[in-house]
Design brief:
Elements lengths: L1 E9 L6 H14 L4 E8 L6 H10 L4 E6 L5 H15 L4 E8 L6 H12 L4 E6 L7 H17 L12 E4 H8 L8 H8 L5 E5 L13 H15 L2 H30 L7 H34 L6 E5 L3
Parallel strand pairs: 1-2, 1-4, 2-3, 5-7
Antiparallel strand pairs: 3-8, 4-6, 5-6
Helix pairs in contact: 1-4, 9-10
The protein binds uridine-5'-diphosphate and magnesium ion (MG).
Main location: membrane
GO molecular function: glycosyltransferase activity
Subcellular location: Membrane
């Protein structure tokens, strides 16, 4: 028995769900395969998302709702979906497909990915070729963002690779062995290994309705997360700069001694002193901050709290 679980995270997506659900059924019925389940994760939405999902579920036994007790974020929504599948599947063979609820991940593309899985591919990733939603400024910013990120982090985080991907059972089991509290799917997949991945290109349309939930603060958090969770490079950089500062101050000291006692032209300069002090003090603050980021994560990780709270709502007929 083969089955595909589509995990769809939705946070305030009331206007998109009906269209998405119809589109998915249409596309999935075009291709042949045994069974599928639409696992909608309601990530603490404040609009009618949950009610609409419940209404859809009444006449549709393919739908399972995972209702998060509050908004835990997209990464946790995906994790909740994955854990549900890992605990509830009864199939020998299954795959998990992650997609967004705003129709930026087209149902037709999802069907294509499932077909590829049937052809034997175990990990299918997607790449956006042309995102109509984002302007030139965003693209330049994005490029710099990813360059910096990939320089600082030990795992490669590819550009333009959305969370629209299909994982065979094998990968689901592997990913589930990573039980860190701080989660980032792209990074975790890189840890597992992407060599065997099939990459399909697709054109991402504009979000069908509603607004994007990613703002500057979230992108900042994502950047810090992806660097700190997968690498200790920032700490190493701090040490390196510390060495450099130490070495240059010894040189400066030697130079000052030489000027005062041998050349008899003592160096004065309050401003130089002040600026050097400010520079190094702020450097210390910066690196205390970086250190704090790591320690904070240790603090959260050792508490080992549950990642989220939710209830699973099934169609009982
Ligand atoms: N999402 C979520 N929880 C959140 C934020 C977003 O489940 O806290 C879902 C959202 O409903 C959507 C997907 O994650 O289905 C991607 O979010 P969005 O479309 O806002 O991101 P963008 O496409 O703009 O990067
Ligand atoms: Mg979107």
């Amino acid at each position: 028995m083969k089955k595909v679980y589509l995990i769809i995270s939705a946070y305030n997506e009331e206007e998109n769900l009906v269209v998405l659900n119809t589109g998915l059924h249409e596309e999935l019925n075009k291709i042949y395969f045994e069974d599928y389940e639409l696992v909608f994760v309601n990530d603490g939405s404040r609009d009618q998302t949950l009610q609409i999902l419940k209404d859809l579920q009444k006449s549709d036994s393919h739908i399972t709702i995972i209702n998060q007790s509050k908004n835990f974020g997209h990464e946790m929504a995906m994790t909740a979906g994955l854990n549900y599948v890992a605990q509830h599947n009864k199939e020998n063979e299954f795959a998990v497909l992650f997609m967004d609820a705003d129709l930026q991940h087209p149902p037709a593309m999802a069907a294509k990915m499932i077909q590829k899985w049937h052809e034997g591919y175990k990990l299918i990733l997607t790449q956006r070729v042309d995102n109509e939603d984002k302007g030139l400024k965003y693209r330049i910013l994005g490029n710099t963002y990813y360059k910096l990120l990939n320089f600082l982090s030990d795992v490669k985080i590819p550009r333009n690779m959305p969370d629209f991907r299909l994982l065979d059972k094998k990968y689901v089991i592997w990913i589930n062995q990573l039980n860190e509290t701080d989660r980032m799917f792209r990074g975790m997949l890189s840890l597992v290994g992407l060599q065997d991945a099939l990459i399909l290109e697709f054109k991402a349309p504009k979000r069908f309705a509603g607004t994007s939930k990613y703002n500057f603060l979230k992108l900042y958090k994502l950047a810090i997360d992806s660097v700190i969770q997968f690498s200790v490079k920032p700490l190493r950089l701090a040490t390196l700069l510390g060495f450099f500062g130490c070495f240059s101050s010894i040189l400066f000291l030697a130079f000052s001694i030489y000027q005062s006692y041998i050349n008899h032209e003592p160096k004065t300069g309050f401003l130089t002193l002040l600026s050097v002090m400010i520079f190094f003090c702020s450097l210390i603050m910066l690196f205390l901050g970086i250190l704090g980021e790591y320690i904070g994560r240790i603090h959260i990780e050792v508490k080992n709290r549950p990642l989220y709270f939710n209830e699973i709502i099934k169609n009982e007929d």
